[in-house]
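Give me structure tokens for this 254-residue protein.
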Amino acid sequence: MQESRFVVIEGSQLEDSAFLLGEDRYTFFSHTLCPYAERVWLTLLEKGCAFTMVHIDLSNKPDWYYGVNPRGLVPAVSHKGNVMTESMDLCRWLSGEDTHDDALLFSAVSSCLDAMSGSNARFWGIGTKIRPSQIEGLESSLGALFSDQTGRDGLFLFGEQQATLSDFVVYPFVQRARVAMKDSYGVDVGLLCDGSVGAWMDAMTQLSSVRIASADESLLREAFRKHKSLDFFDYRSYGPYDLHPHLVQYASLE
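Here you go.
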């Protein structure tokens, strides 16, 4: 990861976004617990971008945010007056890279969400029972990301020796699946694909960007137990440091 400096502002403390939208540095509108926003956060960190991260309370969005993104969703990034949305588009734009195979990546993310919901919860929920077919589907979709078609034998997705954009767009979902499924179903996602998933996740956690952007796992586990959903932050107010107490080491408050 290149050296990156960012500051954190809570969106609820702003009256409007006008002073941010024309800045030369990137302004990243986010929620620290949103996996789609985490993709972009990881990309900004990996590229060494200087940016202002504006934490949007998704359970009580400030009115001015609809002027940034009329849909009211995160992530969004503004730079020199231009605003872009959609996590995959943002990741490609910021990194200058493309992913290996969008269909395989989408399948992996969808399988993570399906497995977390189990057999008795809504999509984006966390259930109490899981079907064997859901575990098999998750292992199959993740296994496709480790298939070696070019003789590469690295720990990262598609046999790469270093993390690529493909790793960063999938990791937030697999990390959440590992926490939720171990706690709810006793299933260790890291053991899937003959341990390749666990080895990959261990390699990812060695990256500074991942350590910065990831929630404290014990706090995340407690939140999952309390709310029984992956998207609990859409309905309950969570500040930027509630599950990321370490974040103050890396960001100044201005």
